[in-house]
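$ ./design --mode recover --in tokens.txt
reading tokens...
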């Protein structure tokens, strides 16, 4: 199953980076939406312009697509929280993205090296 894949399951050619980041975080452990924001910061993502509603909207679309599942956590004294977990489909999506990212990274490194080499000649 593909989820908003653009032209292909491509690392840098796709607008699915937020989804990939979320799946990467969920590989470690299930968590809730607000906690994802902290984890995104820990990955070095500047969340200044990333409103939590975008994260929740992305999670909802990922759940509809079968990449994540959610359950309600009603323990504790506060309101119930929706806990998200990655599915096997989500793992497969992330594996495919990872393979494309490695290939794309090599291409980008070649381009960067070529630019550096030719910039030095000037």
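writing sequence...
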């Amino acid at each position: 199953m593909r989820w908003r894949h653009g032209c292909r399951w491509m690392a840098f050619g796709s607008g699915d980076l937020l989804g990939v980041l979320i799946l990467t975080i969920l590989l470690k452990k299930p968590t809730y939406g607000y906690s994802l924001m902290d984890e995104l910061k820990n990955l070095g993502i500047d969340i200044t312009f990333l409103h939590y509603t975008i994260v929740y909207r992305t999670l909802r679309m990922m759940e509809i697509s079968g990449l994540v599942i959610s359950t309600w956590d009603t323990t504790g004294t506060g309101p119930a929280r929706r806990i998200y977990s990655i599915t096997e489909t989500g793992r497969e999506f992330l594996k495919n993205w990872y393979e494309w990212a490695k290939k794309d990274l090599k291409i980008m490194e070649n381009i960067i090296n070529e630019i550096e080499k030719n910039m030095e000649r000037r």
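exit 0
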